[in-house]
Design brief:
With 487 residues, the protein is α+β, with helices and mostly antiparallel strands. It has 14 helices and 21 strands. 32% of the residues lie in helices and 22% in strands. A hairpin with a 4-residue loop joins strand 14 and strand 15. The radius of gyration is 26 Å and the shape is globular. Its EC number is 3.4.19.12.
Amino acid sequence: MSESGCKHFQSYVKEHSLDTYRILDAYFAACINKDAREKKALTCCCFECGSYGIQLFACLHCIYFGCRGSHIISHLRAKKHSISLELSHGTLYCNSCRDFIYDIRSREIAAVNRKLEAKDLQKSLTWTPWIPTPKETNLMLANPRRRNVKANETLGLRGLINLGSTCFMNCIVQALIHTPLLSDYFLSDRHECSAKSSMKCLVCEVARLFQEFYSGSRTPLSLHRLLHLIWNHAKHLAGYEQQDAHEFFIATLDVLHRHCIKAKAETESANKSSSSTATHSNCPTQCNCIIDQIFTGMLQSDVVCQSCKGVSTTIDPFWDISLDLGEAHGGATPKSLIDCLERYTRAEHLGSSAKIKCSTCKSYQESTKQFSLRTLPSVASFHLKRFEHSSLIDKKISTFISFPVEFDMTPFMSEKNNAYGDFRYSLYAVVNHVGTIDAGHYTAYVRHHKDTWVKCDDHIITTATLKQVLDSEGYLLFYHKNILEYE
């Protein structure tokens, strides 16, 4: 998008003006009076399926309402229309850019409409711009120095000391530090923890590490406190022998997840003592901690009975996806990440030796099982299963698996046609294992800026090219969602 905004919206305004937007926003987004609310209630539904869903779009080029996902997108594509208005929050969407867009003129119109709506309903505005208090103004005046982050800035880069076969931990920490949403969370000081438990809290330690990485210091950092906390809360990782980076990654997310829940419970408990309205849910499916917000997706498993074709569906959360690299039944081996995902989501015949009792026909029948992705996380992490362990031999699979810089996850979704949103992902970190299964070493490539990659080899940080990243063997791959939707 250019500095002047979306060129497609600029062309639309030049041809049609903002009159249509003004009316649609007033009657179907803001609902400035009783007449507007009645019109929205009676006429605002999807022209395709009749749905009165929570998120409808209005085409600004013609008279058409469509629900989010395939219906409004199909209309915009078929009619070659670009601009639509999302009616729940009054945001503009450009189908040509495949993104929500911002235009100052339309926001000024929307602001007037929101004031009219608030006045008619005798309510306060739900959002007002931040105006600094005298105290905040004085703080900014007393601290005028600001850090100017340049394109070649090394702020946020820091080597990590190897404490004795701890390269597995160093590379995972580098990947987590360079996870954009995680850095946004910790650098804005969002984590709250009581002073009593902060010394034992892994989340507090990670928050401290972010401060250390962005302090401006260039000396290598020791992770002894982090290692000690991990040993205390994940006993199977205790000891100075080389550990598996993937196992450490999952264990770290698990401990962070549990500590986030504990810190939230303690905070709410403290608040409850002074307020009888505080509530807390222990339901794990409703966890809204930062770890689940970023890393948790939902995996759908469909088991189809070969006799009655009845389908049994289960949905489970996941933090990452482990992908086989060995030969499939047909003798083919995957050559790319896409090959691995296609094999992972392919229907598998379970055979006569693994009959499952069908809930429909109430008998044991042969069946097929197929995985698909019900919902996708903000960060999609993939584990390429390079280590094979059996009773006869342990070996490493060093087959080269190509992986893209960007790719679309839509083909692997449970509902490909009705999936709402943009499912394009960009690579931002790669963890590699060099050497043998008995004597190996972990390193990581991380994206420091948009077009800048660096190689992290314990305390040594060097610049890297994108070709070096893509030519690497790849053990753990981290992708970040390009466009984030908000509920």
